[in-house]
């Protein structure tokens, strides 16, 4: 590694929520592929995949098909969000001001913060479980705190170090995943239980929905990384680098989890993975996964930090956050996430499944509105300067039309919901099949597009030229 690369890697990131200047742009679609491959190389991905054959009780082959289908579908929407980064050069949630208005977007930003912190806490819980599978007498609270501390150190440096750490995880944990698959395929209990379980459309669709939400959960912050890609690299590289990296890694590790679930259904997932691989490789796999989750968790907090800064800037006119504000916000969110992990370490699997379900219902309308607005209404042309004006400029403070569609997009899903705590009447008629995400996606996208066509004021003025995507944030 050259001295210039080292200096850039360990330099404190100066950028916060302002547009990334042209001279700071670097990276490529291939690097995005490595980032998102590494981002999913965590115990949480394996544990989530195991829900297909444990909680949902699907046979292995239908479980694997549901995992593949869900991620392939959800990944499209997620990668379309990533393609916005090189064009606009700003964080994804700040770009929501173009649809909801400067202050109206704060609702979506709060939801995103809750999501990021939830995933951060979930990763801490599963990382702790992995370490305790190696060292049963270890203190789970101490492990959670140590993992959070490691994440904070990486997140404090910012984008470049986070990107490098996730790239390394992609290679290291990828090799451990290959070993895990080899061990699984050589396990008699896997082949003996291959057909165990009972296929149900409700279980199959639930696993598809988990795959969709897993991918869309990244949608609110994929542009936080693709915004550093040079604009002339084009949207194609950002789309395919993000799509392939995120989908391939998610599918492989979740299928691994589904296989582990049928081989040792009576054990906690990561403990079962260790038992399959044997003493030496089992401990090595668990340690590698736990370390990758702890370090990769910095991605969640980095993006939640940008969201928190965006939220504060919304209501503090003229405030421009700098590196010290980013680090302070990151420290606060690490403390909150660690506290949640310490409180939620019990009954993790069922609680996490419910968390994913609720998250899906909230993310779908926002994603549909954002994608329709960006690709069909404005064709990627925004006045980025206006995002930072207290009045919102041409986008206003509150876009009531977009907020109404968002609220209705959540409401129309309620009859179709099928969760552990509530099943809607439409879902009951469908035999417990959850298609709420599909209903919310179609309704929100079609309704927003129709309003934009019928009520021009709903979208305010459209930016006239591509040059309007530049900003005087630094002036």
Summarize the structure in words.
This protein is 69% helix and 0% strand. It is built from 22 helices and no strands. It has helices at 3-9, 29-39, 43-50, 60-82, 85-88, 92-95, 97-100, 105-134, 140-157, 159-185, 188-192, 201-216, 223-226, 234-263, 269-277, 279-315, 323-343, 348-377, 384-387, 400-411, 425-429, 436-454. It is globular and about 65 Å long. The relative contact order is 0.18.
Give a topology summary.
Layout: H1 3-9, H2 29-39, H3 43-50, H4 60-82, H5 85-88, H6 92-95, H7 97-100, H8 105-134, H9 140-157, H10 159-185, H11 188-192, H12 201-216, H13 223-226, H14 234-263, H15 269-277, H16 279-315, H17 323-343, H18 348-377, H19 384-387, H20 400-411, H21 425-429, H22 436-454
Helix pairs in contact: 2-10, 2-14, 3-14, 4-12, 4-14, 4-18, 8-9, 8-16, 8-17, 8-18, 9-16, 9-17, 10-14, 10-16, 12-18, 14-15, 15-16, 16-17, 18-20, 18-22, 20-22
